[in-house]
What we know:
The chain is an alpha+beta fold. The chain has helices spanning 2-28, 33-36, 40-52, 89-94, 98-121, 135-146, 159-188; strands spanning 66-71, 74-79, 127-128, 155-156, 194-196, 201-205, 208-212, 215-217. Among the domains are: 2-52, no CATH class; 89-188, Helix Hairpins (Orthogonal Bundle), CATH 1.10.287.
Amino acid sequence: MHAERSATRLSHRIIARYLSVVLLTLESLGATAQTIAVSPPLITYAHTCRKKCVSACPVMRRRSRHIRIRSEQFEFVKLNAKKFDWRDTYHLILTLSWPRFAGFVFGVYLLINILFALLYLLNAHAVAEMPVGSFPYAFFFSVETLATVGYGHMYPDSLYGHLVSTLEIMVGMFGLAVITGLISVRFSRPTARLHFSRVAVIAPFDGVPNLMIRVANLRHQAMVEPEFRMVLLRSTITAEGDDV
């Protein structure tokens, strides 16, 4: 009898958890009362089990994330997508405009120098001939060290100072390589300067009606093997009545 009761309770918990997920799915999809009332015994049983087995049926609500992307007069909505993924940082930097890219590089450069300047200030004897507690001196010493430029006036004077300066020189070399690669890729990307007509016409060509538009090259050089792609977007009504 005890084994049968345990098995019955376990089956009740499994069914209640499954039905609770179904209920939450219907609620998230905006189901109407008529849709939920299709199977009254199951719904009633689910509500009863959820009351009895509260600990076994945790309610987990996920906030839906919507990302809106505009392309001229069209707007696309992405559902349950992340707004930012750290794996797309490289692509994001490449797609920045030149003013934003310059601001990003300048901001990262300032942030790195401020961080290492604070590290130099942690030890009063880290840098020789630097006034104690002077942030401007520490900042400009960081700028010189990051660029591997030594003027000879200030230099690391302790083991801590040598370690911090070594780390900063390594960061400077890697940072210079990354920035050089990003700038090279941005300059080497081919960009076409084309102008499309705003009006498309349907006219006969070679005896067949054709959709025609005008394309103009805004550069003064000739184009070799040009390729043009056109995308037609139109809304249709599905059998369920949805506009896609």
